[in-house]
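User: Can you model how zinc ion sits in this protein?
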Amino acid sequence: MKPLALALLLAAAPLAARPLDTSASAEPSWARAVAEVNDRARTVGRIPRARNVILFVGDGMGVSTVTAARIFAAQQANAAGSPPPGFEGGEENRLSFERMPHTALVKTYNVNAQVPDSAGTVSAMTMGAKTRIGVLNLNPGQSAKTCATPQAFPKSLGELARARGMALGVVTTTRITHATPAGLYAHSPNRNWEGADRAYPAVDRQSGCADIASQLARFEGLDVILGGGADRFRPAPQGNRDDGRDLIAEWQARSGGRFVADTAALRALDPGAAAPVLGLFAADHLAYNADADRTREPALAELATFAVRKLQAKRGRGYVLLVEGGRIDHAHHVTNAWRALDETVELAKAVEAVLALVDPRDTLVMVTADHSHVFTIAGYPPRGNDIMGFVRPIEGGEGRTGLDPQGNVIDRQGRPIPTLGYANGPAATRIGDTLLSGNKAPTDRDFLQPKHFELEIETHGGEDVALYATGPGSALVSGSLEQNSIFHIIARALGWR
Ligand SMILES: [Zn+2]
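Assistant: Here's the modeled complex, given as structure tokens:
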């Protein structure tokens, strides 16, 4: 063997076993997750190598949301005249990702919060260690001061994948700078520092921390970026940046990529073309599926399948793609269960469409939620009862005090009880000009469910969420896992450790 070849071989050999080069590896939660995944690995035996990883995050998609959404999906299809095969009320239905062979329960707490937020939770999945609530990809002991020494930041999943020559994509129905998508590419001591506007006050900007939109614009190696939030990229008055910067122009100049802003422009693109794609289809979040104009904003399934085709065309060293169904969370925050479930069904459709495109032998696909909501399915409604409706009586159902003239179960105040409710939340809100309230019929898409405590917005829930997985490495998904173990399962599957 020639000395040069030998030297290359020796240099390359220890690469796979090398510990990951990130400051998060010093965190106690990192070591816990490594131990947890190592435990699984011992049981599983040989772990097939994944070439690609796709992580779907249903923001706020707790277990009760999945249960209600599977019933909702089947009942909506039935009402539209196309019930799923074997329809017998909806409870027996399965969403696309519920057919995946491996599942686990995931503990979502942040290092300082029993009930977490989306920034702390996505960071667990993207930096491999847990951090504080509201913080994006900073170690728990770091602060805005660390922005002066960015090399001290933990590496994000996007940075680690890019360093290994992988292609990268991020897709969401929220602003692309919102916490969950930002987990792939950004570091920020405050998830609200998305742009250069009032949400990132001048006094805080003295920290020198780059706003999240500007981090995205200069992040090299993102091949496909699809979502909302164009206002954070454009100077006022077209957008809301007060620093005069046009980040879309900056991104185009740096990357040579294509920018698109509506469905027709996306469809006109060849996903096989080399240039990266930035698609921002709304000034703010994309519309809820129920309210969307599909000529302007593509559905999540269309965005996700475009991203997969784009990344598959790269033919390099595989890809990492993060896809967020981000508005499940927003609908829950206003206690509008109809839209929360409809958005969950949209995520399930996106998963189904993506699974049809990828090779299950080389692509690890995982579906999870970052956290839950205080959302309940309650009463003793009979099988097939409209999941959006009032509880109807059933022989053997306990706890009711009587029936109203329409035959609905009533509480002690004589009020009928919707099956779906929340522990807390607001009394009324608007989507555009539409008033959402509890005065509508419960089956109306604009109905707000009842809640126990009245707050400005409904809060997240603190119980475990589910993780569903298929493809190489998915056998590591079992039992009860720390949320940051998701990162370590990805790292194992990709052969990084
Ligand atoms: Zn939320």
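A couple of observations from the model: Confidence is low (pLDDT under 50) at residues 5-17. The chain has 14 helices and 19 strands.
User: Helpful, thanks.
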